[in-house]
Amino acid sequence: MHKSYLFCLCLSLLSLFVIGCSNRPDTPPAQEQGRVETEQNRTVTSVATEIAQGTDVPPTAVPIIEPTAVVAAPSELPARPNIILLMTDDQGWGETGYMNHPHALTPNLDQMAANGLVFTHFYATAPICSPTRVSILTGRHPYRTGCMDVMGCTLDTTEITIAQQLQTAGYATGHFGKWHIGRFGGRNAVTPGMSGFDTWVSAPRFFDIGDDTFVRNGTSIPPIEIDTSEFIVTEALQFIEENMAADQPFFAVIWYAAPHTPWDAMPEDKAPFADLSEDAQNYYGELYGMDRSLGLLRSALQEWGIADNTVLWFNSDNGAANRIPADGVAGLSGQKGSLQEGGIRVPAVIEWPSGITSRFVTDTPAGTLDIYPTLLELAGIESGLALDGISLVPLLKGEMETRPVPIPFWYERNLLEFTAQELGTSVWLDYPYKLHKTVTAEGTHYELYDLAADPAEQNDLAAQEAEIVNRLAAAQTAWQADVWQDFTSR
Ligand SMILES: [Ca+2]
Ligand SMILES: [Ca+2]
Fold first, then answer.
1. Rounded Cα distance, 11 and 15, in Å
2. How far is the CA of 286 from the centre of ligand 2 (A)?
3. Could you say which ligand is closest to the alpha carbon of residue 203?
4. Contact 17/115 with Cβ under 8 angstroms?
């Protein structure tokens, strides 16, 4: 079953690639499309098919089943684009329309995927919320900064955030939605306002309709009465509109709470899922409301004439929680909380019409640690900082077909503080090889998988590929020693 599902997904992704190779269809505003689809109650598959029908190449003409990284970007990317980071909360790798999920309805994200760059191997640094958020804002592995607590760590204020970098470089900066890396009150509060954001309309943790924890620039506001995704995007649009007038590039971070538990969707967002359980209606309804807000955002940017030079970078913060009985991880192993693929591989799309002019699908691995260095390069900032990710600008320009450095992961579910170097579970992703290392009081255990041949991590190669294990383990251990050094010198 896993294999057949993965095969279907490959076909689905490939059809996106085919879409990307053909002429761009004239499409109505995305939000309008989403509405039409609700009324007609069309299926996810039919939405994907209809996107494909806007092209000259029928999906059946797909000659191969592997995604291919092909891009013809401008040799010089436009300087200092507007930047919007969008992140869902617990949306699994398979839970999009463009991945042909059996229920998830994401027509606006599918449109972004048909217009931009789709990552098939994009990784959240951690399989849970807070450390991934720290990885985005600091560009460093969260363990370096002391962020360990799975219930919510606090951003170390000695770190230089990407918001501070862009603020110093003349960007207007705003944070909207879930924070979850610091309290908003008390002696040790760390707010978005203290972390480089000029404007913030944010909640300290997850939120749902009726939430009364939102704070706008330091002042509490009344409970939210509309869909929460629509609410934070509306606030972000107000910030963007104000800063457009100032003729200044902007950086907006929109961190959704959907589809995190508890689930509470608006009636119109639940309507397409009426045949499912109440929980599933609210779950997929939250996701559909999030997607509707993408339509609002994209329509406004187009109406204001700034869509072309605005980078929309969408991803989820960790793998599927899989509490709804449908395969959110699309045949991968593991889920939220695990360093198996299902816990860390997430949907990711970048839409930037003036920078990514040929739409394409890449299987080059990338992740949330790469966001910081990529944005620095896009904004023309030399930081001199030692970061754990790399700039993806060469990938955007078609100059990176294989990733030059591995991606590190390190996560221990019960760890509140480091007590020993190398403790816990860690992963060294040197694609296509993925090394799992588990350190307990009993000793060290390795597993090795070839993700290209075995994306579901079923066939452990550690015993037969000792040389590869040794090579990856040596690099991983050296990196862990460096992280340990940073942690202990904080
Ligand atoms: Ca999450
Ligand atoms: Ca929720």
1. 6
2. 7
3. 2
4. no
Q: pLDDT tens digit string along 342-353? A: 999 999 999 999
- What is the C-alpha separation between 40 and 44, in angstroms, rounded? 12
What would the pLDDT profile of 266-312 be if each residue is shown by its tens digit? 999 999 999 999 999 999 999 999 999 999 999 999 999 999 999 99
Answer for the pair 338, 319: CB distance below 8 angstroms, yes or no: yes
Partners of 123 in beta bridges = 345, 367
How far is the centre of ligand 1, averaged over its atoms, from the C-alpha of 293 (Å)?
19
CB 428 within 8 A of CB 435: yes
Distance of CA 272 to the CA centre of its chain: 25
The HSE-up count of residue 398 (CA atoms within 13 Å, CB side) is 15
Give me ligand 2 centre to Cα 256, in Å.
9
pLDDT in tens, 227-247: 999 999 999 999 999 998 887
The set of residues, in sequence order, having a beta carbon less than 8 Å from that of 418 and lying 6+ positions away, is: 143, 148, 484, 487, 488
CB-based contact 161:196 (threshold 8 Å): yes
Which numbered ligand comes closest to the C-alpha of 283?
2
* Distance from Cα 332 to the centre of ligand 2, integer Å: 24
Contact 434, 411 (CB under 8 A): no
H or E segment and range at residue 236: helix 228-245
Tell me how far the alpha carbon of residue 52 lies from the centroid of ligand 1, in angstroms.
Answer: 31
Q: Which residues surround ligand 2, an ion (CB under 5 A)?
A: 208, 260
- Structural domains present in the chain: 82-396 (3.40.720.10), 418-488 (3.30.1120.10)
- What is the CA(87)–ligand 1 centre distance, in A? 9
Distance CA 270, CA 286 (A): 8
State yes or no: pLDDT of 49 exceeds 80.
no
Q: Separation of 325 CA from ligand 2 center, angstroms?
A: 17
User: Measured in angstroms, how far is the CA atom of residue 17 from the centroid of ligand 2?
Assistant: 32
Q: Classify 9 as helix, strand or coil.
A: helix
Distance CA 425, CA 213 (A): 34
Q: Which amino acid is at 175?
A: H
What the block records as the tokens of 187 is: 């002696």
DSSP state of 77: P
Write the CB contacts of 241 (distance below 8 Å, at least 6 apart in sequence): 300, 304
